[in-house]
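Teaching note: in complex prediction, the entire set of molecules is handled at once rather than each chain in isolation. The prompt given to students was simply: 'Predict the structure of this complex.' The entities are:
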Amino acid sequence: AQSVTQLDSQVPVFEEAPVELRCNYSSSVSVYLFWYVQYPNQGLQLLLKYLSGSTLVESINGFEAEFNKSQTSFHLRKPSVHISDTAEYFCAVRVNWDSSASKIIFGSGTRLSIRP
Amino acid sequence: DVKVTQSSRYLVKRTGEKVFLECVQDMDHENMFWYRQDPGLGLRLIYFSYDVKMKEKGDIPEGYSVSREKKERFSLILESASTNQTSMYLCASSTRTNEKLFFGSGTQLSVL
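The expected output is the structure of the full assembly:
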């Protein structure tokens, strides 16, 4: 069965330090991969996605993720974090259900906390 | 902007009650989803629907049922609420290709 594994439940980092949030997926077919973010007391929203093409995708607030097929990974990185990046981050994969339908499966989430 | 509206932000119910959670989207999306979010477990898919009157089980359907009589509305039903169904319930919708999910603000359900 397809699944998503987020290896770290919590990641504390200092402000302006780099961060990597790890995500591995299992899938035997072509994948769509996503990172969603949930800021404190807010709803989930899409941060970035890989559908096809360039394996490196970027968000508008400086995050990037690289699709690595050989390692079945889609790690999220940012070279310098800010207090405003404090949030819970969820990796997700689209799983095809049949020829016309699909579903989205999420990982268990990584809580990123930024220390001043 | 797409709007996904969940009928209640907080609900408190008693064990054994029948509970209805309603979700409405305004963008004519084909797909709708119900997840529950629990600390340390992330989002787990309960049910999803890819068309009117169509429904498919997710990873944790036990104790739940759904109804989609109209394209814009997707209801989650707890036939007989139990304490282990205390959770945050999230509804989402998307187009058929699922390239982006739009989430509601969630319903925090407490079953006493």
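Point out the following to students. Chain A has a mean pLDDT of 91. The domain at 3-115 of chain A is CATH 2.60.40.10 (Immunoglobulin-like).
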